[in-house]
Amino acid sequence: MKRTLTFIVAITIATSVWAQHATTFVFVKITESIMPIQRGEKYEDPLDEALKKAGLGEVTGAGSMLSKEKTIEWVGLDVELTDPITGIPFLRKKLTELGAPAGSVLEYELNGETLQVPVRD
After folding, report:
1. What is the DSSP string of 4-27?
2. Are 33 and 90 in contact (CB under 8 A)?
3. d(CA 93, CA 11)
4. What tens-digit pLDDT sequence spans the chain (121 residues)?
5. Entry pTM
6. Rounded distance between C-alpha atoms, residue 96 and residue 23, angstroms
7. Do 29 and 74 meet the contact criterion of CB atoms below 8 Å apart?
8. CA 47 – CA 57 distance, rounded (Å)
9. Distance CA 107, CA 110 (A)
């Protein structure tokens, strides 16, 4: 009986810890031709700071899409959100404040459905 109870408690704790760390991946496509250093200064760093301060997640990566001519067509950010219901509107607002141009989008999956939401209305 004691072993069974210990096992149940351990499983409950493990499930609770896992649930607290479950995140939603969001790909942020920003339709701006901007160099990596400037991308970090303009988008990555301020967005990461704002997400962490709000307890909503963090920026986990970034990159640039190059054309055949090796020019930057657009940039992308990888974001992990702890709460997509609150985090998606937060991302849209913050990216708009940071100057993400029209055509920028958030791509993510929620409840098994792939969604693409514009940053700007």
Report:
1. HHHHHHHHHHHHHHHHHH--EEEE
2. no
3. 39
4. 555 444 444 444 444 444 456 899 999 999 999 999 999 999 999 999 999 999 999 999 999 999 999 999 999 999 999 999 999 999 999 999 999 999 999 999 988 999 999 999 8
5. 0.81
6. 23
7. yes
8. 10
9. 10
Q: For residue 64, list its beta bridge partners.
A: 75
**What tokens appear for 99 in the block?**
């100057």
Amino acid at 31: T
CA distance 51 to 109: 19
Q: What is the number of residues in the chain?
A: 121
94: left (phi over 0), alpha (psi -120 to 50) or beta: alpha
Report d(CA 82, CA 6) in Å as an integer. Answer: 29
Q: How far is CA 8 from the centre of its chain?
A: 34
